[in-house]
Amino acid sequence: MNLIKIFCCLAAIILISNHSYAASWDLVVNGKAFHLDSDRDWNEDNWGLGFEREFAGHRWVPFVVGNGFRDSMNHMSYMGGGGLKRRFRPGGWMRDLHVDIGMVGFVMRRQNIRDGNPFPGLLPVVSIGSRRVALNLTYLPGSAVDSVTDRKRVDPDMDGVLFLQAKFNFDYFLPRVR
Predict the structure, then answer these.
(1) Domain ranges in the chain?
(2) CA 159: distance to chain centroid?
(3) What Å distances lie between residue 3 and 53, 66, 117, 133, CA to CA?
(4) Which SS3 state, helix, strand or coil, does residue 1 take?
(5) Fold of 2-172
(6) Of 67, 71, 70, which Cα lies nearest the Cα of 51?
(7) Backbone dihedral region of 166: left (phi > 0), alpha (psi from -120 to 50 degrees) or beta?
(8) Which residue of 103, 147, 153, 161 has the smallest Cβ count within 10 Å?
(9) pLDDT tens digits, one per residue of 120-167
(10) How far apart are CA 55 and CA 146, in angstroms?
(11) What does the alpha-carbon distance between residue 42 and residue 163 come to, in Å, rounded to a whole number?
(12) 0.85 cut: is pTM over it?
């Protein structure tokens, strides 16, 4: 529990600190998971909501995230964390698009894992889109799934889980203040 308090304090400090670093607030809609080569019928409709806050950066973009969603066992799961992404821009007629590749570190709480106690994680993240909308992808390798859930006992053929999220910039949902 102390780990969650520490993370929340750090996130609050980052969020209310120097506004010159602020880049954008985004709404994250969790939606789909694919359990690769699975023999079991997992919940793959991982609906939920959250946020992502990116801080100004040209090539390297720091960010914080938080969300709640239905997990593979159809229980609510909650996570918060932060990371760093390397932003690539194709240029030319696609100059408004970006491809981000990075890592996210987080603390997660799941009902059926570690007796509901929070646990840390580190995962790769890819985001493809524009300032207005993007698709976030995260991959959890089978070995990582097994270290947290002991999935080999339940689904020995599963090779990992691919998570998809849609990300929408809040600026397009809020009224403009002049």
Answers:
(1) 2-172
(2) 20
(3) 21, 15, 10, 32
(4) coil
(5) Porin (2.40.160)
(6) 67
(7) beta
(8) 153
(9) 989 999 999 998 999 999 998 877 666 666 555 567 778 889 999 999
(10) 33
(11) 13
(12) no
Bridge partners of 94, per DSSP, are none
Distances (CA, A) of 6 to 55, 80, 81, 122, 123: 20, 11, 11, 17, 20
Q: In 3D, which of 95, 117, 115, 92 has the Cα closest to residue 107? A: 117
Residue 41, exposed/middle/buried by CB under 10 A (0-12, 13-18, 19+)? Answer: exposed
DSSP letter assigned to residue 74: S
In sequence order, the 6+-apart residues with CB closer than 8 A to the CB of 73 are 42, 43, 110, 111, 112
**More confident site: 97 or 152:** 97
**Tokens coding 162:** 């691919």
Q: What is the pLDDT of residues 76-95, one digit of tens each?
A: 999 999 999 999 998 888 88
**127's tokens:** 């985001």
The Cα 119–Cα 168 span in angstroms is 28
User: How many CB atoms lie under 10 A from the CB of residue 53?
Assistant: 19
Cα dihedral 21, 26, 30, 35 sign: negative
Closest residue by Cα to residue 103 from 121, 119, 88, 77: 121
